Amino acid sequence: MALGLEYYLVLSALLFTIGVLGVLIRRNAIIMFMCIELMLNAANLAFVAISRSLGQAEGQLFVFFVMAVAAAEVAIGLAIIVSVFKHKETINVDEVNSLKG
Amino acid sequence: MTAEHVLFFIFGAVSLIGAISVISFKHPIYSALSLIVTFFAQAGLFVLLGAHFVAAVQVIVYAGAIMVLFLFVIMLLNLGTLPAKSALTGKMKSIAVVFGVLLAAEVIFIAISAMNDTEVGSETTREAAAAFAEKSVTTYNIGELLFSKYLLPFEVTSLILLAALIGVIVLVKRENQTHN
Amino acid sequence: MEIDILQQLIIPIIKILFIAHLLIIGVMAMIWSERRVSGWMQDRLGPNRVGPQGLLQPIADGIKFLFKEDLIPNHVDKPLYVLAPAMLLIPAMIAVAVVPFGGTITIADIEIPLQIADINIGILYILAITSLGVYGVVIGAWASNNKYSLLGGLRSSAQMISYELTLGLAIIGVLMLSGSLSLRTIAIEQGANPWQWNFFIHFPAFLAFTTAMFAETNRLPFDLAEAEQELVAGYHTEYSSMKFAIFFMAEYMNMIVGSGVVVTLFLGGWHFFGLETMGGPIWSGIISFAIFFIKTGIFLFVFIWVRWTLPRFRYDQLMNFGWKFLLPVTLTSIVVTGTLWIVTNGSRLWIGIGNLVAAFIVVAIVAGILALDTNSKSVGQDTLAAPPLRGLEAIE
Fold first, then answer.
1. Is the pTM of this model over 0.95?
2. Most B-contacting residue of A33, A64, A86, A92 (CB-CB within 10 A), to test interface
3. Is ipTM > 0.90 here?
4. Which of the other chains make 3 or more beta carbon contacts under 8 angstroms with chain B?
5. Residues pairing with C252 in the sheet
6. CB A27 within 8 A of CB A93
């Protein structure tokens, strides 16, 4: 008998919560960004687990779409962080608070 | 206790410890390494779920490419030398933990109740799932779906990646004309 | 029940022990042959004092490494500094698990495939594991807290990401023809005779894959991460004693595994004119292993040969070569293979010819564009450099 879906969902929920907490309590832009990746991964875990429970391969496909979007997002996000750093010499999001460069 | 139980708890514990380390280490390099550990444990969980292809792609894309980019940027900006300012006092941290626990309880409650309300948790699906878990999804199945039913999302994904590519080049391109 | 335990536990353990020791002995043999071959190529002797023909030199070196003081400099980040060599060595060692090193041996009605694990995503596993090797280099470089090391690590990470693309794209044509990701199936699908091997069908992809392999293993002409003239010793400047030896071993192990993968993907694995089917159930397995061994050895010789023949690339040349030549060639190879496979009903001859012609056309077009660009460009402006170069320039 395979392990029940609820185990995987609870793990996924815990990982997601840790990601949310990270974004809320850390002020370092790079670490906040990593926490976003963590949340996406928690969702991926839920996708794959539900895919097995429903007996369909679709859940695994969505994981690929999530990964592709995550890759695009990381590339753009890190580029933004690098240009913010060049400009302000910091990546503490509390200090990057003016719209005018 | 089957082998799946044991492996699930090992991988689950490793991924949780890794995730907590991501948000508690001061230095970004250590956070990044903890995140890699988490991704690995997740790849292990994917294998456990019979999603071998997803597991391999998880390691290739996340551990092999995305996290290398993170490390590259951390090293490029040499963030270790920056003064680590924390906006959080001890009191706020404990409040954060309380709300984190609340949030976790809420997400778990929603997930489990949704599972029980819908067909996911019903007996018939469980039987179908058991049969499905036996054969496991192959790369062939995924490729077939990706190039037939989900062709449009697949193509849109490539457009997103193209847009990201152009965006990055525009963002980091040095403007020779204005500086010289 | 007893046979079950034998098949599931004891035989794999024997195979793992055999391969792990073979790898370590292979590393020693490689160190010896690298020095002897380079000596031969430069018309000098090389090490020949310890043992016959200097064969025991690697052992003497190993003993020397073991007894050296294992010092950790004060300014390093200790946990990561200690962890880094292991992070390089472990991926190098576990990647070999899916490489098939021979046909099958049948002993007492038990058929033993000469491979540690035949998983159905074999080649993806190889790609995933080799992509992890970069962490050892990058973390070692960062933990050393030394600007030359850091520069080496930065170069290495940019180089790895760039060449991994080529590595992944070059095999897609191969996968299309074999219809499987399992390395064993890929080797069997190619057939026994050399003209059926992917080496001829996908010649441009083979060249691109090999080049990317050189870059991934940090070998000359792509060893920018440890360029002696510019960066002292790059990422392992601060390492000494056994930790340095582990970096060294990992590099050679990567080469051996890489050669094994190339042999499996492009050179027909353990096949050679049907020689591997000669002999009884036991001998055919041993012969097939010997064939694989010899092929891998020849390819390792190519590694050494290239190292002592070609000069090192400059960093911008490396990036330009990867992004402007290798990537277009492999992408075209995918399109051409797919199209010709449909049009000619899977005729391998036409796919081979088409791949070659297409690669020539692509290289000619890219070279033409670059030549036009340099002619029209005034001095001191470089508007076409690849994006990763921008990143590196930003720290200067």
1. no
2. A64
3. no
4. A, C
5. none
6. yes
